[in-house]
Structure formats: structure tokens, C-alpha cells
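writing this on my phone so excuse typos. first protein, seq and then structure
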Amino acid sequence: MPSPVQQDPGQPRMRRSLGVKDGVAIAASSTAATTSIGIGMGSLAAYAGRQTPALLLLAFLPILGIALSYARLNRTEPNCGSGYTWVGRSIGPWPGFLTGWVVLIGNVIFMAYTGAVTGSVVLQFLNKLGLHSLWGLRLDPSSTGISTAVGLVALVVVTVTAITGVQAATRLQMWLLIFEYAVLVVFCGYALYIGDQPFSLSWLNPFDIGSPQALAQGMVIAVFIYWGWDAAFSVNEETRNASDAARGGLIALVAMLGLFLIGALAFQRVMSTGELMHNGPQALTFLGNSLAPEPWASLPLAALMCSAFASLQSSVIPTARGALAMARDRTLGPVWQRVHPRYGSPAVGTLVIMALAALLAVLAVGIPKLNDMILTAVNSIGLTVALYYGLTALACAVRFRSSLRDGVVRALRDVVVPAASALTLFGLGAYLVWDYATMSDHFEASPDNGWFMLLLPALFILLGLATAAWAKWVRRAPYFRTGQGTDADALTLPMDGDAGGPLPRPVES
């Protein structure tokens, strides 16, 4: 029986061939700025109104603290399990497992609803080309059922590309990013210039948001919109230098802030709050039609389609690799650690994730409107993202608490900022749990029903605790005795396709 820090010698090895540019491509694609701007600004406007830009700036502060915590932990212990491994060692195996679990479940849910969003964008594109029905079936982009069916095809396509290797996938994502960001910057910049809605400094004032509940809910949605930059840390074992992952994630995060602010301001220069909320996932299409004639008006829609595909693909990659790290510790089953002999990727786990996302997408068809499905998914994922981000930042503060004796700069970097970021996200999550629990007096499968919104993340966490109990007492995973995950950097991995020796271990400082 292999120890938790060893790889079965019969298993193919994952290849180290990625650099900073690849990390940026994976992180930026996973964050999906164009998709977030295209479909997320309407959700933010529902809570923050014209203060959406202020909310994005405010939410960036704790997220930056989380990112710095990731970078600090990654410098000491690079691992594709990231938060799962770090929280397990620093706080304990149960919260560590829960961190890995909510990442896995959150990404599966994200892929399920993003598949439907991708399908909706494809249908919008077909409508633009004059195709509104096929074989008597109306191609309605706002229909959850039709959008999901098209999205399932997209999910299969991106899964195949993810299996054939991360390097090929990141090359494709980089070209998609260049195209969509160029379109986004040009159209949003033009909207800022010619928009007829008067700009106001109150747009940048978070104190003008209507209520504490709206602020908290908007913050959680904004955290979700930023979510994805940490995907760069999931390919440590395929990255030439562990610091490349940190640089890639941080570069992508700062770029996302700039793009989100430009997008939010541009939308508000062209649309009223009511128009922004009404258009929902078709807001970017509305923007294109407002600014340019065809065929130029279709460019934002094409960029949104590229972003949706890239986001799906970049979600598959970190999810499968996080499950790989957990499977090595026997906290998940052995199926998750099977590496493809040719492509060096966790192919079976990738297929399982795709199947789970497809199943969830089909079940979500019961929510008839695409806008409602998106809001339900965003709220549920936002709470779980706040939980695992907060746990990871707390792990950083606990692990490096000795830095409190090493001067102000180190204390701020290693303890104070991570702890403050963690407490901010925990506070937001706790407030929303209380708000959801008290806002409704009956249960209804609707995004404005508090019990329904609370039920979904509660089920995710309870299922995670049950899976952890199975791993501890049935699989007898050593992780639950030590809290220490797979030491990925002690494995012998080939360098650029060659069978190199073990990589040097990082020095903890």
C-alpha cells in the first residue's frame, strides 16, 4: 500500500512543461472575464444598482488578501491540491477535506450552469444568423432546456481537449483570450465614450448601496465573479517552477479587476439599471447592438462564446487535478488518480467530472428560466467559494503565525492580511446564512426563496462530511491521521518530456 507521499510507480507521470504564460491563460480563462461581464453584471445590478463598480472594487480587497495567501503557501508547499493540502496540514484534516470537497462540487455546479450559458450564447449566435427554429423546435436562448442540450455538446468537446493535455488546452485558451479581450476593450471603451447615461461619482461609493443585505449578497456574487484565478495553482505538477503558478494567478486577478471595472462602467454608460437587469445573460449582445451595425455588432457575442468555451475547459482542468491530489491520499477513490499513459492527464477523473456536470445540468432543467438558474447557481457557489477561500487564508495565518515576531512587514503579509481576508469572507457567509434562514416562511425552488438558497450549499457540505467520514473510517485514509496531503514536489516527474530526477524541495521560511 503506497504511502500518502508516494506515487504508484506503475502510474504514468504528469509532465512539467507549463510557465507563467500558461498559468495566466488557465487562471484568466477560469475567471472568464467576458462571461462574467456578459452575464454577471445584471445579477450584481439587482443588488448594488448603480454602485456595481464600487462593489467590484470593495470585493477585490479580501480576494487580493486570499491570493497573497495562496502565493505564500504555494511558495512553501507547491501542490495541485492547493487549499485541500494546506488547510489539512495547518488547521486539520476535516476542514482540509471540506476545502477540497467544496472546490470539487463548486466547479461541477459551475460547469453545469456554464454549459447552459454556453448553449444560450450559441443559440443567440444562430438567431443572429437568421436560424430561429430547427425541425419545428424553437431555438430560444432564454430556454433552460434548449440551452442545456446545446451546452452538453460543448461540455463533451472541452472535456476531450482537456484530456489530450493541458499545454494544448492553454495554447487554445491564450488565443481565445487575446480575441475576446481585444473585443471587450474596444467595445467597452467605445461605450464609455459615447454612452448617454451620465457618469456619477456615486457609482464608486459603496455606502450608497441600499441595505446591508444587498451589500452582503452583492459581495458574495462579486467574490464568485472573481473566482477562478486560483486555477493556476492546480497545475503545479505540470509547471516548471512553482512560483510561476503564483505569478500567473496574481497577474490574472489584477487583469480581471481592470476588465470588470471597465465593463461595469461601460454597461452603466449605455444601459439603465432596469435594462441591465432585464437583459441578464444577453446584456453583452445588447451592448453590441447598441454600439455598432452588423456584422460588427456580433463581435461581442462571438467573444462571449469564446469565453464560455474557454471557461468550461479551464474548469475541467483544475477540478480533475484537485481530485487527483485527494485520491492520492485515499480520501477519494482510486479512479480519480488514473493518469493517461499518453497525455499525462487525469483522464478518467476528467470524464467523471464531465458526467457529473452533465447530470446536474439535466436536473437543473427543472428551473425553467435561464436567468433563474444562473442566479441560483451563483448564490450557491458564492457561499461555498467564500468558505474555502476563507479556510485557505486562515491556514496561511495559522501556519506562519511565528511571523508576528519577525517585523511589521512579514506580520502583515503572512498573518494579518490573510486573517482579515478570512474573517471578512466568513462574516459575509454567516450574515447571508442568517438572512436566508429568516427571509422566507415556506420552501420553493426559486432563487428568491431563502430556504431553497440555503438548502443547496448545506447539502454540499453535509455530503462532503459524509464522504470524509467514509474516507476516515472505511478507507482509513492516512490524511485523517496526519492532516498532511500528498507531497507533490517529492515525486519524480519528467522535465519537458524527459525522465528527470526529483525536483528540489522548497525551503520553508
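second protein below, same order as before
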Amino acid sequence: MNFSLSPEQAEVKKMVRTFVDREIIPYIQKWDADGHFEPSVLKRLADLSLMGSCIPEQYGGAGMDYNTLAIICAELERGDTAFRTAVSVHTGLNSMTLLQWGTEAQKQKYLVPQAKGEKLGAFGLTEPNAGSDVAAMLTTARRDGDSYVLNGSKTWISLCDVADNFLIFAKTDPDLKHHGISCFIVERTFPGVTTKAIKGKLGIRAGNTGEVFLEDVRVPKENLLGQEGEGFKIAMAALDNGRFTVAAGACGLIDACLEASVKYCHERKTFGKEIGKHQLVQQMIAKMAANLEIAQLLVYRAGWLKNEGKRNTQETSLAKWIACDAAFEAANDAVQIHGAYGYSNEYPVERFLRNSKAPVIYEGTREIHTIMQAEYALGYRSDKPLSKMLPAWPFEE
């Protein structure tokens, strides 16, 4: 076991932290208050080769290992959850899924420009009546000659208004439930694709989130990802990657809460001493520090399994559950430490609290992950080999 970052990982961490301090933190209060998504941040991340960090160089990526992706996500969420979410969706849910399941032609056409940051990818699984219950989706795909015709809608789709390509899951055989779901690469420019942003969100207000509508969208059969009926497996494999990045981001949010709280503890005095001298405040600080270490270890373990080319559904689920719950608790405590000022956007902790709630819900609620971990422990659940695995790192030439 080696708990040290490699020189390359340490350099990336430093680079992204500097980027966040210069390009996100000075502006995020206004962007959040205005509900403004700033796409130029993603362009600058692409210039740093961070939109395809863990995609092999042969497909336009930087060829970094999967734990470097975790480091990038943690540092981005230290700035704001919106930008970690963008990388989670573009890289974790979309590009890594293309890397794992795509044909060579699909990789050349879609993965290469996405890894370079020239195109943005999104992920369309959730529907108004199908969240945790994926089999309840109503979106359909009907084969018609050399195409599939898609009808339906998706909701809570990050990057909905700015993504160039979507991975859309639809039922090719509604009678087969999970086994009747297939996955399609859908371009925004296909006739019948429209999107609409969701307003009034509790948090992640600087992110673009919304609905995708599909009305008689004709998709070439070459854009079927995997095989017909393989969509559910593809979606769950994609969530292994998405959940990994969400857990990594939660580490960054805990770090941000700890950083802000420690600073305030030294600035604020009550009863003649810094509030950091009060033991109940110290208790909250101690929990943040301990949970940051715990969450990081769980994330890096999952990343190590990815690097080894091994299944990591159980470990990633645990990391996502524990890290996101810990981030929510850290943000809540950070507001408490700041007292009345924590209730104002004069300090960043109120934004941290609002942002911390969504990851406890999306990509598997904490209740879903609790059940998963119990079923693993009880022997009711086990992970079978997939027909295609995410490539191990270092990547083969």
C-alpha cells in the first residue's frame, strides 16, 4: 500500500487548485446568485487537458490514471459543485462509457472530440417517473430500417443546454423491463431534440441542469451503444464511474468546509478567545478532518481498483454513500460554526450546504447505497463479470 500521491498527481492537484483559486472562487458567488452557468470555465479546463484526463492519448485524452480524475474532481468541487458536476457528467458518465462500450468508429467520431474538450457529452437516464426505478422509464426506441426512432423525455440532465452529445437510454422492448433497455448516442442537432433548463434549484445554481425532449428523433443504427437490451448494464457501469467522481467531489467539499471553518475559527472571538478554543467547535472541526481522511481513502481505493481493471461497484457505492453524507454533515457544521453569518452568502458555507444536498440524492440515493451495502454483506448481491470492462491503467498503446 502506498498512500502518497505520485509526482504527476501532486502536480495536477496543484495546477487545478491554482486554477480554481483564480478562475472560479473570485466569481462563484455572483454566478451562484444569478443562476449563471459559465461555459468558458470548461473551455479553459479543456486547454489544460482536464476534460479527458483519464482517456487514453490515442483517443484524444491525457492518459492520466483514474485517481488523478478523482483529484481533479475534488479540487473543482472545492471551488463549486457545478464544475465538478460538469466533469463528472462529461468525463465520468459519458466519455468513460464510450471508452468502455463504444466501437472503434464510435470512439473516433464521439470520444476523441470529447476527450479534447472540443465537444461536450451528457447522460440521459433519469425521467420524471423513473429515478431509482430505472425499469420504469417510458422513453422508447423503435427500429425503423437503418434507424431507431426515439420518443420520450429525460429530466435532471446536467449540461442539457450546452452538451453536443447525449447518451440516451430507451426501451427497445418494453415487455422485458430491465432487459429491454438500450443505449443510444444522440446528437443535439438531430431533428426532434429540444432542451429546457430547470430553474429554482436549491443548490448547484451555477450549473446547467434541465430536461431533454425527444420527439420522433431518428438515430442511425450505428449510434446504438453496445447491443440491444444491454442498456441497463451500460447504465450501471456508467454509474460506477459517475459515482466515483461524485464521491471524489464530496472530498473537495469537505475540504472547502474545513478550510473556511478553520479560517473563521481563528478570526471570530467569543468570551475572550477564538471560537476554535471552544471544545464543541473543535468537535465539529475534528469530524470534518476525520471524515475527509475516511472519504479520501474510500475514493482512492475505488480508483485503485479501476486502475487494476477490476469491478468496483461495491467499493464505489460505499465511497459515494459515505463521502456524500460526510460532505452534507460538514457543510451543516460549517454553517453552525459560522453562526448567523453562516446563514448569509457573505460567507461561502451557505452555498456549500445548499450544494451538498443534491449528491446525497443523485446517482443512487443514500438509501439505495445503504441497501446495496447490506445486500453485499448478507451475500444477496454479487457482481458478475461484464462483457466489456473499463481499460486498466497504464493504458496500452
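The CA atoms of residues 330 and 370 lie 20 Å apart. thats all i got for now
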